[in-house]
């Protein structure tokens, strides 16, 4: 709550003072006092608007320390006006106007600030008449009449945790207008973020060493804080290429391109899990038709599962009840020149599996999926049903290890309960949210945004590790 000084609490300002802007996460900045200027101004760059036209917001960054362009504070605020301002040299500029709390020596009051590039100015902020009001006396011959602050505050561990929430710009890479995509937009905007759905196949790339870019519908895409990939199986190669481009730019991607690629290649995925000693059904693969009997023998006896490597949502997965049926299915797949796996059928699972949703290295929700009557597949897309389920410590640890094996920050890990412990069927890098949110009643997308916000934290950052000058003042 701001404490506006009254007439009995007169403040004396010199022509330059130290002030704080707590709403913007700026604990110390030197401001020049200029009674000739009507509106206050704040040095800002990378200024961009976002949000609905009815309640527009602006994102910008600040160099609070003169001479330290490597030190950056990212900020955001609602736009209250757009105003034409004439500078001291007579130049006119149309600037965005925001409101922020100004704090001096324990006293706080709201001030209007215009955003402009003051990189050539020694003072990163200018205080105009509107901010000074009647409770401030100006002593034009002196400076720092109020207690002096220090730029050292920016180098403390406490500074990172005190930074205010900053609106993020999020890209959802998706070609579909489905529940998951709509929830990502809804939850992000509810938190004050700008969320844009980008059709993956309409993106294209400028690939070069100095300035790699992603373009979309004829324009370069803006600087995103994070990308949430929702890459369909049919466009995995191109979709992961787009994600690699964002990774090259330095954008945080919830799931990395390598993790998505390896999870989609079922043969490689099983090899990765085997390397990590993660339990899974006995699995075999062979290219030659002469090895059919040996292939079946490696897995065990019928019934068996024959699964296309490119299968999704239960499509291309066949249960062979007898050895003869397994041979027929294998021959048919080979006749189509299709790549496939042969797996042991876990009878005790009884047509049920468990989907564990892992976000940021934690299982945030789990549900039991049961196949439709007469169908051994439990996929919800095929008419299966789901309900919330309590999982064991071993199942939780298995799901976490499986997601970690693919380096995925978000994954749907499908488990079977067997007599030998949990067995991983699949690790999904683009899990749907509808079934698990409705069956568990949990805000799963909210947990995802918690993870994104913790990784893309609004705190001061240094753009260069070396060559940065020390504070000029």
TrEMBL record:
GO biological process assignments: SOS response; translation
Positions of the ATP-grasp domain: 270-453
Alphabetical UniProt keywords: ATP-binding, Ligase, Magnesium, Manganese, Metal-binding, Nucleotide-binding, Protein biosynthesis
Cofactor(s) required, per the database record: Mg(2+); Mn(2+)
Single annotated GO MF: metal ion binding
InterPro entries: Asp_endopeptidase, ATP-grasp, ATP-grasp_RimK-type, ATP_grasp_subdomain_1, Peptidase_aspartic_dom_sf, Rimk_N, Rp_bS6_RimK/Lys_biosynth_LsyX
Bilayer-spanning residue ranges: none
GO cellular component, one term: cytoplasm
Pfam families: RimK, Rimk_N, Zn_protease
Similarity section: In the C-terminal section; belongs to the RimK family.
Name the UniProt record assigns to this protein: Probable alpha-L-glutamate ligase
């Amino acid at each position: 709550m701001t404490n506006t000084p009254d007439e009995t609490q007169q403040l004396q300002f010199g022509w330059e003072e130290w002030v704080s802007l707590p709403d913007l996460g700026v604990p110390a900045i030197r401001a020049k006092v200029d009674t000739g200027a009507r509106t206050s101004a704040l040095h800002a760059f990378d200024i961009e608007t976002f949000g609905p036209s009815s309640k527009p917001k602006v994102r910008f960054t600040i160099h609070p320390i003169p001479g330290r362009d490597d030190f950056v504070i990212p900020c955001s605020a609602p736009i209250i006006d757009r105003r034409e301002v004439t500078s001291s040299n007579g130049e006119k500029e149309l600037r965005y106007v925001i409101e922020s709390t100004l704090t001096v020596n324990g006293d706080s009051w709201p001030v209007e600030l215009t955003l402009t590039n003051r990189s050539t100015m020694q003072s990163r902020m200018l205080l105009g008449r509107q901010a000074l009001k009647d409770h401030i006396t100006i002593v034009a011959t002196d400076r720092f009449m109020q207690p002096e602050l220090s730029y050292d505050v920016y180098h403390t561990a406490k500074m990172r945790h005190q930074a205010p929430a900053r609106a993020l710009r999020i890209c959802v890479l998706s070609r579909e207008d489905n529940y998951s995509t709509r929830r990502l937009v809804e939850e992000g905007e509810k938190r004050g973020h700008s969320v844009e759905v980008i059709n993956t196949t309409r993106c294209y790339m400028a690939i070069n060493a100095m300035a790699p870019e992603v373009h979309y519908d004829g324009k370069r895409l803006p600087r995103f804080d994070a990308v949430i990939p929702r890459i369909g199986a049919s466009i995995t190669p191109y979709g992961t290429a787009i994600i690699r481009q964002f990774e090259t730019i330095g954008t945080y991607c919830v799931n990395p391109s390598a993790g998505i690629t390896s999870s989609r290649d079922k043969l490689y995925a099983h090899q990765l899990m085997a390397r990590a000693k993660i339990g899974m059904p006995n699995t075999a693969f062979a290219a030659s038709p002469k090895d059919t009997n040996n292939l079946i023998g490696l897995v065990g006896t019928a019934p068996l599962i024959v699964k296309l490597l490119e299968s999704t949502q239960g499509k291309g997965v066949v249960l062979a009840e007898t050895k003869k049926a397994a041979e027929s299915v294998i021959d048919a797949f080979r006749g189509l020149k299709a790549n496939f796996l042969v797996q042991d059928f876990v009878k005790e699972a009884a047509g049920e599996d468990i989907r564990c949703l892992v976000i940021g290295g934690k299982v945030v929700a789990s549900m039991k999926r049961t196949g439709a009557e007469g169908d051994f597949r439990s996929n919800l897309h095929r008419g299966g049903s789901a309900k919330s389920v309590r999982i064991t410590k071993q199942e939780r640890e298995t799901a976490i290890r499986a997601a970690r094996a693919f380096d995925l920050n978000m994954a749907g890990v499908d488990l079977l309960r067997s007599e030998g412990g949990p067995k991983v069927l699949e690790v999904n890098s683009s899990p749907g949210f509808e079934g698990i949110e409705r069956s568990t009643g949990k805000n799963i997308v909210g947990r995802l945004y918690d993870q994104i916000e913790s990784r893309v934290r609004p705190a001061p950052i240094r753009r260069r590790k070396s060559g940065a000058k020390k504070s000029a003042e």
